[in-house]
Write a structure and sequence with these properties.
Elements lengths: L2 H23 L7 H21 L3 H24 L11 E8 L4 E2 L3 E13 L2 E2 L5 E7 L10 H5 L5 E9 L9 E4 L1
Antiparallel strand pairs: 1-3, 1-6, 2-3, 3-4, 3-5, 6-7
């Protein structure tokens, strides 16, 4: 078998993987994580069997498609588990963590990423996404300026904030928040 045949087979495996990802993207709802893991393991078993027997390339294509579906579904399910609980949306929380990006100053105030170490609701610990985008607004009147604490905010600093988290609404927000 020459180099040309190997290239065609690798391209076929890549296309099969992409077909598996496309199948995942067509789902109305995410399957549970155990099903995604089972697809991935089944796909790996098919690819291993095809490699072992060498003549069953179709089995390798099926395995690559299963791997694509299982891996993308598993990753999506893990990402969806990382969202804000609806019961916490709009509630006053106290969060402690680290400024994880350079603060971006805009007309209304500052925006920055924040890595949360702990969160409290009324003194009781709650689970929130580990990384959020925060907005720290400078005020409601036209000539409002940044306060002294806002001017000293830097990446890498550890802060404690009172926040109201909300689900993302729009293209650019992963997790938007306002601080009081």
């Amino acid at each position: 078998m020459g180099g040309s045949g190997t290239g065609v087979r690798l391209a076929g495996l890549a296309l099969a993987w992409l077909a598996g990802v496309a199948i995942h993207l067509q789902q109305r709802t995410l399957w549970p994580i155990p099903i995604q893991v089972a697809l991935l393991v089944s796909g790996l078993a098919c690819v291993f069997a095809a490699w072992r027997w060498r003549r069953v390339f179709v089995l390798a294509l099926v395995g690559a498609a299963l791997c694509g579906t299982g891996a993308s579904g598993w990753r999506a399910a893990l990402r969806m588990d990382d969202r804000l609980a609806p019961a916490l949306e709009g509630r006053d929380l106290v969060v402690v963590g680290t400024v994880a990006s350079l603060p971006q100053q805009g007309a209304s105030g500052l925006r920055f990423r924040f890595e949360i170490e702990s969160a409290l609701l009324g003194g009781a610990p709650v689970v929130v996404p580990p990384r959020v985008a925060l907005g720290w607004y400078k005020g409601f009147h036209e000539d409002a300026t940044l306060s002294e604490p806002q001017r000293t905010l830097r990446a890498g600093q550890r802060w404690r904030f009172a926040v109201r988290l909300r689900q993302p609404h729009g293209n650019l927000n992963r997790m938007a928040s306002t601080m009081s």
